Amino acid sequence: MPNIAVFIEQRDGAMKKVAWQMISEARRIADAGGGEVWSVILGGDPAAAAAEAGKYGADKVWSAGGDEFNPYNSEIYGTALAAFCKAAGPDILLIGSTAMGKDLGPKVAAKLECACISDAVGLKFDGGWEVRRPIFAGKCFTDVTPTSSMAVVGIRPNAFILEEKAAPAAGETFDAGVSGIDAKAVVERIEAGGGGKIELTEAEVIVSAGRGIKGAENFALIEKLADSLGAAAGASRAIVDAEWVEYSHQVGQTGKTVGPNLYIACGISGAIQHLAGMSSSKCIVAINKDANAPIFKVADYGIVADLFDIVPTLTDEIGKIRS
Ligand SMILES: Cc1cc2nc3c(=O)[nH]c(=O)nc-3n(C[C@H](O)[C@H](O)[C@H](O)COP(=O)(O)OP(=O)(O)OC[C@H]3O[C@@H](n4cnc5c(N)ncnc54)[C@H](O)[C@@H]3O)c2cc1C
């Protein structure tokens, strides 16, 4: 029976929601096939992690504390997670496909000389693992089976549904083996980008703008609609290249990969490179005045109209409902 470990990413103590989504899915797999769900946190607040992880079904939370885990350093984190895997021996380690996770996963896998599967959106255990990941810019899926006995798998945020189980997780510490590491690269400081208030990759609702907004000054319309929905504001590359918004908003092949429950695309044509970053959204709404725009092929709901009519009306109506 597989023991599944889930990495809880924390930055300055704030833990990423993708960890709870991965724990929920791990619990479903463990409930069906046996085995335990563990989670592991480096630095941060292990007691808070145990309380939260237990809520979603973790049996145990392993922790290693210390200042060396703040800020993030891939060499130190990689060494610590590999030490955890060697000590605890999970069958699979799940890491969120966040900026940190994409950096960390391959490092841990290399240290353990095991398979590394990135950007997964599905996980099955039936005597062996089957990991589902999108390929060809999200046009198809492939199911990958790791051949090594242990595997590191990166999971896209919002790929799995949260499910509360409400039982506390037991706490356990481990020796991360990082004292005295002379890291070859040191993080001096982290400067927050000027992106949206809600992190795109974690957002449950995203309102994105494309060249249809005509100019930088009109991005405020999109932000207003986003605010009314408690959503993050995204962008196509066209308007990032035009310097209407910062790169941190960009969704797509060369931007962020997102998987919200609701993605509202305003004045976005639906180029393959944009779809690559958002086509796994659970529900896609497109607003475009061109009925033949390719975005309508992936949209669940399409509004063929001028966004300058629709977006303010939607914002007002949502505001009324919310108040
Ligand atoms: C290697 C590579 C990587 C790339 N990576 C990315 C990426 O990560 N993300 C990304 O987005 N793109 C990326 N692109 C660019 C991509 O190919 C497209 O050029 C880009 O997505 C187009 O952006 P857009 O839809 O905003 O603009 P357009 O294609 O110009 O579409 C604008 C849309 O707005 C509609 N419109 C105009 N006015 C209105 C109105 N008043 N109301 C409603 N609708 C209106 C139009 O009908 C049109 O469909 C990449 C390209 C390459 C080559």
Q: Can you count the beta strands?
A: 17
Largest sheet: 7 strands, parallel
Helices and strands: which structural class?
alpha/beta
Number of helices: 9
Q: Specify the CATH class of the largest domain.
A: Alpha Beta
Element string (H = helix, E = strand)? EEEHEHEHEHEEEEEEEHEHEHEHEH
Uncertain residue segments: none
The helix fraction, in percent, is: 25-40%
Q: Could you say what the CATH topology of the largest domain is called?
A: Rossmann fold
CATH superfamily placement of the largest domain: HUPs
Order of strands across the widest beta sheet? 7-11-6-1-4-5-12
Measured between the Cα atoms of the first and last residue, the distance is 50 Å
- Quote the average pLDDT: 93
| Distinct small molecules | flavin-adenine dinucleotide
Q: What's the CATH architecture of the largest domain? A: 3-Layer(aba) Sandwich
Estimated radius of gyration: 21 Å
* Total count of domains: 2
**What is the overall silhouette?**
globular
Beta-strand share of residues:
15-25%
Tell me what you see in this structure.
- With 323 residues, the chain is α/β, with parallel strands linked by helices.
- The chain has two domains: 4-173, Rossmann fold; 200-322, TPP-binding domain (Rossmann fold).
- Helix content is 31%, strand content 25%.
- α3 (74-88) packs across α4 and α5 runs parallel beside α9 (307-322).
- The termini are far apart.
- The model has no long low-confidence stretch (mean pLDDT 93).
- The structure holds flavin-adenine dinucleotide.
- The site of flavin-adenine dinucleotide has 28 residues, from α6, α7, β16 and α9.
